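1st attempt posting a full record on here, be nice pls
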Amino acid sequence: MSETNRHWVLTDRPKGGNFNEVLDLREEAAPEPGEGEYRVRTIYLSLDPTNAVWMQYDTYLPAVPLNSTMRGLVLGVVDKSNHPKVKVGDIVSGMGRWADYLITNGEGMGKVPRLPGLPLLSYLGPLGMTGATAYFGLLDIGRPKEGETVVVSAAAGAVGSLVGQIAELKGCRAVGIAGSDEKCAWLTDELGFDAAINYKASGWRKALRAAVPNGIDIYFENVGGEITEAALDLLNLKGRIPFCGAISQYNATQPAPGPRNLSVLVSKRARMEGFLVLDYTPRMGELYTEMGPWVAEGRIKWRVDLDQGLENTLTSFAKLFNGGNRGKLAVQVSPEP
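the predicted structure (as tokens):
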């Protein structure tokens, strides 16, 4: 590719999901690494709901400054290096930018181990931050026990589709909530979920109740709103809720009305705990050790909805909020080496 660096610049705070109006694709000369730095050519750009949050306000990370390049997770190859521990050709992944190239001193970026027989793209999906979110969120926060019932919202998304499969591998009953009959069929027919509920269908609350005859032991929270309310009503004594996100509220222009039944946590002596996958970065070796063989053996099925071209990032990004993707969503920016 040329030595030009295309990059998406955030020009204003989005309101109601108007990302096309606040992000501008610009070009500049490709940056050069200084002493102790290296340059990464982006191969794959991860698109995640949290990107929308980073555009709007401070959270666990400061909001992306206006008139600067948009932040995002990337998987790329080192093409220039002045770093003593990083060489040209190394494959790395971590916090980067919506750009062709980025310069880093290695903070927030790590080498990809490349386990035998696994495609590079798997390190953006089940063996990347997406897989770590599902794995550590369910196992560390949810603490599933064999025979328990696990319900996951946004189950056809990147994280949710893995959560249900990990639950099955741990001997649990997995029930997914998704937004179409096609997605629900994918969950049950291909991924092995025990049941899947289309929350856009009439009578979905009744269908959810029927799908969990023994109640819900673990509810993996991805969406917020009325789906959360329905799950809370079915929560068992000592239930656990790993709180991953609330995508239904990220682009809201008015405060969300609920859930209105959080008092269930008291009567059920249940626990809801938020978590950040970045906290688990030092434990990625655990993910590779257990998830790696599952992926290699086909016991974990995964899918990447992959679009082509950095210039098409916003068209792809919209899929996160209109239900247009199944599995992990990403853009290929440049060829694999």
